[in-house]
Q: What sequence folds into this?
């Protein structure tokens, strides 16, 4: 049987990441960046598509594992009749070549171990040429070279595929295996291989301890909050500040189905929540880096604004399929790239302006051309805000007049007015105020269903949508408004065993809103938005219960995927998912007895 999604833990060097299974196998690794082709891809196929397992003979699931507190160092332990052993997996923050380090430590007895490495470059497809070098073996294919070095073991001379190394670890002994990537045209071994693994281990632990010490959250869920913030940091591409939605592609929203998307990119729809989460948690530098990435990525004509960009801000993310990969538990197709770059989404204009306003309120320096950017975005919205779009959920069916998109048009106008006031600018504020008021009236009339007593998914629709839970947080209506309270009550129709779906599975088209077969799981972020809305509308006990339900479905090392299947009791979708962990942090602050100040400030009506 394939490992479940929740069987995987994350390690990262802040430029790429690996997924480590509870059996000691790294089944997913892209080098040298998050969005590079995978060289270990068993996660989406079989062992023939690349893996690296370090585990006791004869193998099997570990006895226990954990992250070392306040770090991203993964400790996996096995106990057997022969003894006990620990493997410490980590990736040092990038200073030289990208590396994966696996320190093996004998705890008791004398444990037979095996390292088995099968590299498959270019998305788990290309078999490399393997040769012996001064620092171990090197596998080469096209632009890629990957070195395997053993520290504390005889020199590696194996030229076979897979590269297998058997050894025994007695109690008290530590040795290390290091995998490092370089461009294949660069001569010589990576300099990183000459640094003792113990030195790298200490430096990596010190880095994470220093970073987590900045966390300002001191509430009852600190462990969960810190783990979520570490995960968010691990999904950050340090050279640019961009944050990927997840380090994986094509982990399915429906097992055996085709809801399989590439999330190794940066989405604008999460930008304001990301900034707010980082600022409130005490990570101002990361918030500023995210803002810098955002401003660079969106530079240009507002008509060419995309919903998603690459980690470097690149716009071309062509979507292709990989028929040589059988897919996670047979879920096909496996996709690389994302065609959502070509979708029209009105909500991203509001997200950008909300992010800029929050940055301004928090005192983060904004570029000198920010006011020109605001005027340009608002000018485009004034001309196009009545057009149908593909909405927050990026449906691949026909465009609609989505209520959340229209609410975000209101947010755009509202935040533009707020920025004008803070910056002392005049601009076309009269036009923006009229737009804001007009959209507000329109949404309250066209987006409200008096029979359901709830805001709905789109104009003329009777379908509910979890995005309506964001209405009070965005400031569109106050939490005490009866329409907000009624909408929160109506969300019980989207719940399954207490978890909230994005929308009902039935809808337009033969398969539903997105014209895809199969029923997806409940969205983790939506379940957390529900907890926030319950708290805001005066139901603290129910809010806490909803939050703790989500905490209970984290995996054994505290990670959340995009979705949770409440019937099968398993995680679904790409993992770990940034928006799930961002929402967890925000909800923890919202429900804590003393949540502390919000640097971006509360949202109040602007006259």
A:
């Amino acid at each position: 049987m394939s490992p479940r999604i929740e069987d995987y833990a994350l390690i990262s060097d802040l430029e790429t990441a690996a997924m480590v299974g509870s059996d000691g196998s790294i089944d997913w690794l892209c080098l040298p960046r998050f969005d590079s082709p995978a060289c270990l891809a068993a996660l989406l196929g079989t062992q023939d598509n690349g893996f690296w397992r370090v585990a006791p003979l004869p193998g099997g699931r570990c006895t226990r594992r954990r992250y070392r507190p306040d770090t991203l160092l993964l400790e996996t332990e096995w106990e057997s009749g022969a003894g006990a052993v620990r493997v410490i997996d980590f990736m040092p923050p990038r200073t030289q070549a990208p590396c994966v380090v696996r320190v093996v430590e004998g705890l008791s007895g004398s444990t037979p171990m095996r390292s088995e490495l099968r590299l498959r470059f270019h998305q788990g497809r290309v078999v490399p040429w393997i040769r012996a070098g001064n620092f171990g073996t090197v596998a080469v294919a096209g632009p890629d070279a990957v070195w395997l070095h053993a520290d504390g073991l005889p020199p590696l001379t194996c030229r076979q595929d897979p590269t297998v190394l058997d050894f025994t670890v007695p109690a008290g002994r530590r040795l290390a295996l290091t995998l490092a990537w370089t461009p294949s045209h660069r001569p010589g071994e990576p300099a990183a291989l000459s640094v003792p693994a113990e030195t790298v281990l200490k430096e990596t632990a010190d880095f994470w301890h220093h970073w987590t010490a900045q966390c300002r959250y001191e509430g009852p869920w600190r462990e969960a909050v810190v783990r979520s913030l570490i995960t968010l940091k691990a999904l950050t591409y340090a050279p640019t500040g961009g944050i990927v939605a997840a380090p994986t592609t094509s982990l399915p929203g429906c097992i055996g189905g085709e809801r399989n998307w590439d999330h190794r990119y940066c989405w604008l729809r999460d930008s304001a929540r990301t900034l707010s989460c980082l600022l409130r948690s005490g990570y101002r530098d990361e918030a500023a880096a995210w803002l810098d990435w955002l401003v660079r990525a969106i530079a240009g004509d507002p008509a060419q604004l995309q919903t998603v960009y690459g980690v470097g801000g690149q716009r071309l993310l062509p979507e292709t399929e990989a028929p040589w990969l059988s897919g996670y538990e047979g879920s096909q197709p496996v996709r690389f790239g994302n065609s959502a770059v070509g979708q029209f989404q009105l909500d991203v204009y509001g997200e950008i302006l909300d992010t800029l306003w929050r940055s301004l309120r928090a005192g983060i320096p904004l570029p000198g051309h920010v006011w020109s950017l605001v005027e340009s975005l608002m000018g485009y919205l004034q001309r196009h805000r009545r057009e149908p779009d593909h909405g927050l959920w990026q449906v691949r069916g026909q465009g609609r007049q989505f209520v959340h998109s229209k609410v975000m048009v209101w947010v755009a106008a509202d935040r533009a007015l707020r920025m004008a006031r803070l910056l002392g600018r005049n601009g076309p504020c009269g036009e923006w105020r009229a737009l804001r008021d007009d959209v507000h009236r329109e949404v309250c009339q066209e987006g409200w269903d008096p029979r359901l007593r709830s805001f709905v998914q789109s104009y003329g629709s009777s379908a509910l949508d979890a995005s309506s839970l964001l209405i009070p947080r965005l400031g569109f209506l106050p939490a005490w408004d009866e329409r907000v309270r009624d909408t929160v009550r109506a969300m019980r129709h989207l719940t399954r065993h207490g978890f909230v779906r994005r929308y009902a599975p039935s809808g337009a088209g033969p398969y539903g809103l997105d014209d895809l077969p199969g029923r997806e799981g409940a969205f983790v972020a939506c379940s957390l938005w529900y907890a926030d809305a319950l708290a805001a509308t005066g139901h603290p006990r129910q809010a806490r219960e909803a939050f703790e339900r989500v905490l209970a479905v984290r995996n054994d090392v505290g990670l959340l995927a995009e979705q949770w299947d409440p019937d099968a009791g398993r995680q679904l979708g790409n993992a770990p998912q940034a928006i799930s962990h961002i929402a967890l942090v925000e909800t923890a602050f919202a429900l804590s007895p003393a949540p502390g100040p919000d640097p971006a400030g509360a949202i109040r009506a602007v006259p």
Notes: The first strand starts at residue 8 and ends at 12. The two ends are 60 Å apart (CA to CA). Confidence is low (pLDDT under 50) at residues 507-512. The chain has 14 helices and 27 strands.
